[in-house]
Amino acid sequence: MSKGYWIVRVDVHDPEGYKKYLAANAAAFKKYGGRFLVRGGAFEVMSGEARERNVVLEFKDVETAKACYRSPEYQHAIAERGDSAVVDVVVVGGYDGPQPADG
Fold this sequence. Notes:
Alpha-Beta Plaits, alpha+beta, flat, 35% helix, 3 helices, 4-stranded antiparallel β-sheet
């Protein structure tokens, strides 16, 4: 079974308000086993448009990733965030197929 991932892009407009979201989202991520692979590190836009912050979370599978997003705990975190940020969240399944050959 493939892992599930959240790909998240964020523009924060109110850093103080966004702190409430950051404090509240931990409960959902802990409950659903979310693990940060990327959390706001340095980046370079190679193509297209970007937001100021990027996050990738890993879950055991896509269904768990979706359940976390829809959970009361995460919905509470969204409410805490309010209008402090513009956020894009995409849930995507991992890939377990063949990879390009070395060489």
